[in-house]
Amino acid sequence: MLYSKVTPEAKRRAFREGLASGELQRFPGAYNALTAKLIQRKGFEGVYASGGVLANDLGLPDIGLTTLSEVAGRTATYARATDLPVLVDGDTGFGEPLNVARTIQALEDAGVAGTHIEDQINPKRCGHLDGKSVVDQGTAVNRIRAAVEARRDPNFVILARTDIRSVEGLDAAIDRAKALIDAGADGIFPEALRDIGEFEAFRAAIDAPLLANITEFGKSELFTNQQLTDLGYNIVIYPVSLQRLALGAAERGLDAIVNEGSLRSQVEFMQTRADLYDLVDYPAYSEFDSSVFNFDVERDNYH
Asked: Which residues of 143-165 are buried (b: 16+ CB within 10 A; e: fewer)?
């Protein structure tokens, strides 16, 4: 009832243990607290909070327009809704070293389990778009050092994302990843690797946890969980997938109203009222206060 009873500290320990387990950690991207609960129900290891999803949910493009307070406030609702660790897209840290330090502590206070900080310039852009620019290596290293120094909970996971592959090539990405690990990063998020050969080369070169970003309509192949396990990657995110699925369904529903005059053709694809009430755990509220939930819900497609 209400919020997760698992403490942020316990979730962070679980995240670290998962990264070291040898099992692929699957983190689908939530777009609200309810989808975070659904991800837990389906048996995943964690929840991802994409900066692109958070921006899009505000009606904005993913170009660095969201603020730290918006990201921390929104992802806090994810973290308190689920027992799973939540990994948050920290963009560029919302500025330079002092801003990065504040970002880490604000996200710790939000109850999430970890974040990744990237090496794009401000304002950043989506990692799978062309025309990106990255900061020099010294600036990238200083961001990660600031993040690590600011961390108060040693189990809070700090990953370093590098976008340099699309700008200077794979060798430059590997060199930068090594420098970011030396700066204290717990693992590397190599953005926009192209094919299985690049994923293999990166794994062979970097002795640290690696994150694979599996996003539709991007630069990378849509590898399966088994392929990523065989490649030796530790965590996979599906950052925008649930939002895309939801918006696709919403568009089909609106089209049905326009073209058919009702939503009858779409009802079979909807979550039922009974399933929704079960997901938000109405019965637990009833146990606390019987006046809250004192009715029966029929379990069929029309409720």
From this structure: bbbbbbebbeeebbbbbbbbbbb
Work out the pLDDT band at 297, boundaries 50, 70, 90: low
Output the six-digit token pair for 142: 């200083």
48, 78, 233, 238: the catalytic one is 48
Global model pTM greater than 0.90: yes
Strand partners, 188: 160, 210
User: Is 118 annotated in the active site?
Assistant: yes
By the 10 Å C-beta count (0-12 exposed, 13-18 middle, 19+ buried), 169 is classed as exposed
CB contact at 8 A, 121 and 134: yes
Task: Quick: pLDDT tens for 204-217.
Answer: 999 999 999 999 98
Per-residue pLDDT of 261-270, as tens digits, reads: 999 999 999 9
Can you tell me the distance from the alpha carbon of 7 to that of 4, in angstroms, rounded to the nearest whole number?
A: 8
Query: What's the token pair of residue 120?
Result: 């794009």
Among the options 108, 213, 233, 238, which is catalytic? 213
Measure the CA–CA gap between 212 and 301, rounded to whole angstroms. Answer: 37
CB atoms within 10 A of CB 10: 15
Q: Alpha helices, DSSP H only, in 111-195?
A: 137-150, 165-168, 170-182
Q: What is the pLDDT of residues 20-60, one digit of tens each?
A: 999 999 999 999 999 999 999 999 999 999 999 999 999 99
Would you call 216 a catalytic residue per the annotation?
no
Catalytic residue, chosen from 12, 56, 78, 118, is 118
Domains of the chain plus CATH, in order, are 8-239 (3.20.20.60)
The one-letter amino acid at 273: R
Query: How confident is the model over 103-161, as pLDDT tens digits?
Result: 999 999 999 999 999 999 976 665 555 667 999 999 999 999 999 999 999 999 999 99
